[in-house]
Automatic annotation (TrEMBL):
NCBIfam families linked to this entry: 30S ribosomal protein S12 methylthiotransferase RimO, MiaB/RimO family radical SAM methylthiotransferase
Domain Radical SAM core: 154-391
Enzyme Commission designation: 2.8.4.4
Residues that bind [4Fe-4S] cluster 2: 168, 172, 175
GO molecular function annotation: protein methylthiotransferase activity
Subcellular location: Cytoplasm
Protein name: Ribosomal protein uS12 methylthiotransferase RimO
Length: 460
């Protein structure tokens, strides 16, 4: 193994999102811009999975070669690249246009040691092969990771995570991200929009905007004006959303804090430009606990703000996550949280029992809550959340909703409405309906609901 650089590494467009590395992957990308989009998608997914991208053969645990088979010269270039990667590293996964038929046979013949060969756009197979040869070592951590556990295992074709910034200017006491990642650094707005456009061109139907603090986008660069498609665009969430809305796909915002600036986004939602959906990690409702957590916007009157948003956008769906059993949480604090939930009527909630993260300041707080009380509170919280969700979903019966299909199996099709983000929210089941494929948008009449999911039939 040598320090030779990976021959044609493409520029990275997504930042890594995990604290520790699961391993290092090199990428050689050959061929046309379409192939580059595939490579970017694989790189993005690798980074969401906690892998680092290596620019050297010598420190890559495995090398992915994305081949081009358009003309003979391109094929030869691909074969040379595979041979070089085999010589310099030895652990090689081949994907792309040459990964099928006679070309694949030729690759195997010339390089019997390649670990796996897949065809073009085979993101899932590439990720499976990487997982097989460089198994992830870091467990998923809901307090640190931006993408849900299920989301990092799958490589969706029709929806994509789009990271708009790295780092964070806050100092929540249960979190070590600012120590590890540093202060907020917003990606240039033109780069984010370029990536969004490429993802849409590659088949993405839904862009899931993520960062540690989405509403703070651009604060670090004082909302500097950038350029995209020859037009000035501010590095600001509103402007970014407005431009993304022109791409003709669903745009869903995650990790938005309830700052007053979020009010500006409401008209975009009311006009149907972006999905009327907000993922706001409230974490708690007791002012005392929020202060102990040092949460951003802890002093905001969130109930009042939610009420105003709903007046402007009546179909707004709110999802959030909460932590119960935070150090110092009393029964009174917890009851306040339950009462707040009743009033806020959030559509979707997730709840974690507090657990210490190594190096977090909250570890030093007094009055840690015993495990059995944490468990009881978690169960009480989930029972309350379930009641609210059941009630709200029942109101959907009889409505016609647009459903984005996620998968089709022998029992029928499964999809989501605007109200549900992949892997964390609910589903819509279209039993015995097979005449569609992932990524299709269907109009569906909702016929049945339970605590979390809906059932319906497509309009004929
Ligand atoms: S807002 Fe708080 S929880 Fe989120 S990344 Fe920043 S410090 Fe961590």
């Amino acid at each position: 193994m040598t320090d030779k650089p990976v021959s044609e590494g493409i520029s990275l467009t997504a930042e890594d999102t995990q604290i520790s590395s699961n391993g290092r992957v090199g990428m050689v990308s050959l061929g046309c811009p379409k192939n580059s989009v595939d490579s970017e998608k694989i790189l993005t997914q690798l980074q969401l999975n906690g892998y680092e991208i290596s620019n050297n053969y010598s420190d890559a645990d495995v090398v992915v070669v994305n081949t081009c088979g358009f003309i003979d010269a391109a094929k030869q270039e691909s074969l040379d690249a595979i041979r070089e990667a085999m010589t310099e590293n030895g652990k090689v996964i081949v994907t792309g246009c040459m990964g099928k038929g006679a070309d694949a046979e030729l690759i195997k013949e010339e390089n019997p040691g390649v670990l796996a060969i897949t065809g073009a756009h085979a993101y899932e197979e590439v990720m499976d092969a990487v997982h097989e040869w460089v198994p992830p070592t870091q467990a998923h951590n809901p307090f640190i990771d931006l993408v849900p556990e299920e989301g990092v295992k799958l490589t969706p074709r029709h929806y994509s995570y789009l990271k708009i910034s790295e780092g964070c200017n806050h100092s929540c006491t249960f979190c070590i991200i600012p120590d590890m990642r540093g202060k907020l650094v917003s990606r240039p707005v033109g780069d984010v929009l370029d990536e969004a456009k490429r993802l849409v061109a590659a088949g993405t139907k839904e862009l899931l905007v993520i960062s540690q603090d989405t509403s703070a986008y651009g604060v670090d660069v004082k909302y500097r004006t950038g350029f995209w498609d020859g037009m000035p665009v501010k590095t600001k969430l509103y402007d970014l959303c407005e431009q993304m809305s022109k791409l003709g796909v669903w745009v869903r915002l995650h990790y938005v804090y309830p700052y007053p600036s979020v009010d500006d986004i409401m008209p975009l939602m009311a006009a149907g430009k972006i999905l009327p959906y907000l993922d706001i990690p409230f974490q708690h409702a007791s002012p005392r606990i929020l202060k102990l957590m040092k949460r951003p916007a802890h002093a905001e009157n969130t109930l009042e703000r939610i009420k105003k948003w709903r007046q402007q956008v009546p179909n707004l769906v709110l999802r959030s996550t909460f932590v119960v059993g935070f150090p110092g949480e009393t029964e009174e604090d917890f009851q306040l949280l339950l009462d707040w939930l009743d009033e806020a009527e959030l559509d979707r909630v997730g709840c974690f029992k507090y657990s210490p993260v190594e190096g977090a300041k909250a570890n030093e707080l007094p009055d840690h809550v015993p495990e059995e009380i944490q468990q009881q509170r978690w169960e009480r919280f989930m029972a309350k959340a379930q009641q609210i969700s059941t009630r709200k979903l029942a109101q959907r019966i009889g409505q016609t909703m647009t459903v984005l299909i996620d998968e089709v199996d022998e029992d029928g099709a499964i999809g989501r409405t605007y109200a549900d983000a992949p892997n964390i929210d609910g589903m819509v089941y279209l039993n015995d309906f097979h005449d569609c494929q992932p990524g299709d948008l269907l109009e569906v009449v909702i016929e049945h609901s339970d605590e979390y999911d809906l059932w319906g039939s497509p309009l004929s």
